[in-house]
Design a protein that fits this description.
This protein has one domain: Arc Repressor Mutant, subunit A (Orthogonal Bundle). The chain is built from three helices and six strands, in the order H-E-H-H-E-E-E-E-E. The chain is globular, with a radius of gyration of 15 Å. The termini are far apart. The relative contact order is 0.16.
């Protein structure tokens, strides 16, 4: 669905274009410095997820993280079935390029997959 661009949507896009990791609600609010309220941020993020611009990852900590689909998804093959890594020291969540391969029983189809690996990133080692 084609949605019109607004200054608030563009602010969220600009924020994610400047990031290399996924962000949670608190991180987004901090970065946007009060430019919009929590409900507006969630509405924009959910619309972007519906439109395939972003994907949501539920971390092992129960927090929703949002990632812009720019390095994890090829333009011709849009997928979100890849691993994610959350650093338990700096709390960054990173999309990994490794695609998840799961052999489901006949008659089953995968709608979504959420795989988060935890540990320490190279910056925090």
């Amino acid at each position: 669905m084609k949605r019109r661009n607004t200054p608030t949507k563009q602010a969220v896009i600009d924020l994610f274009n400047s990031c290399t990791t996924a962000l949670n609600q608190e991180q987004i609010e901090t970065q946007l410095q009060g430019k919009m309220d929590r409900a507006t941020i969630y509405r924009i993020l959910n619309n972007f997820c519906e439109d395939g611009m972003m994907h949501k990852v539920v971390g092992d900590d129960g927090v929703n993280y949002f990632a812009m689909c720019k390095t994890c998804c090829e333009h011709t093959h849009h997928h979100h079935d890849h691993f994610h890594f959350r650093c338990t020291t700096c709390n960054q969540l990173i999309c990994l390029k490794e695609e998840i391969k799961i052999n489901l029983p006949e008659g089953f189809s995968m709608q979504d997959c959420n795989c988060v690996i935890t540990g320490t990133c190279s910056n925090c080692q």
